[in-house]
Predict the structure.
Amino acid sequence: MKPLAERNPILVAVAGLAILTVIALLAFFANDLPVIGGGTTYTADFTEAAGLQAGNEVRVAGITVGRVTGVSLDGNKVAVTFTVRGTWVGDATTAAIKIKTLLGDKYLSIDPLGSAPQDPGLPIPLARTSAPYDVTQAFSGIGQQLGQVNTSQLARSLQTLSAAFSTTPPYVRRALNGLASLSSSIASRDAAVTSLLAGTRKVTGTLASENARFQALLGDGNLLLAELQQRRAAIHSLLVATQDLATQLSGLVADNQSRLGPALQALDQVTGVLEQNQANLTKALALAGPYYRLLGNTLGNGRWFDIYLCGVVPRSYAPGNTPAHGCKPPKA
């Protein structure tokens, strides 16, 4: 084979671009490949889309098993196609569009039921599907309808109608006058209602921008609840052990009540005797200190006692070694 440097650079460049294009297409359509992606595609009929979009998750018991691949109108119903992988779908499977976050994100929840597998060529009928009521879209629709109403013209129309019925009975005129007053009140609050709707739109946009933080907050709350659930058994064991300890202590006190009573009574008598002789004990401790100090000095030479005898020999035998006054030791 010829070296790459000796080949035509144009052909090499074209071949390289073709290979890169194939790799990019394979990476882009990786989910549709039979080995590393793909799965089984099913269809479910719904009465409304309820905000479900292609790319939303498909979950079974809260676990993501696939993605929604398409949402299209099929006559008077909505056909939702989704792909799942590694999940058994039975012929009695139910599907429901559910709300994923507080900001209105949706996901498709399926409950695999039935004794036989679901035919991918047959859609899941309306009897086994359900869609949530989207309050956000309802309020948005109300705001758009109110924005299209010309409140000033409506007020003038009701006032003209009231003037035309001026010759009618009093209760009819009062009813029309009330309607005219209501219309005038609505017209006077038109700017306030418009401002309120604009503020609501801003709040919705802010909440949508903080979607990731809301998800993180909910995830942390789930972790905290899981940790408390794990610690529940340990706390229960601690309380049970404490209760058992209290029971054992109560039994121990009850079993030794006959012994503890006389012992505490004797201890009370001893305490009373010590309180009555507190002065004598204080004096004894004061005299014991010098006594034990002299005794220690006496026995300081080991096995021998230091003893001084005075008056054994008469003065006439040792006139120079006797003390002048009384019988005292020769050393100071």
About this structure: The beta strands are 40-46, 57-60, 63-74, 77-84, 94-99, 106-111, 129-130. Residues 39-133 form one domain. The mean pLDDT is 76.
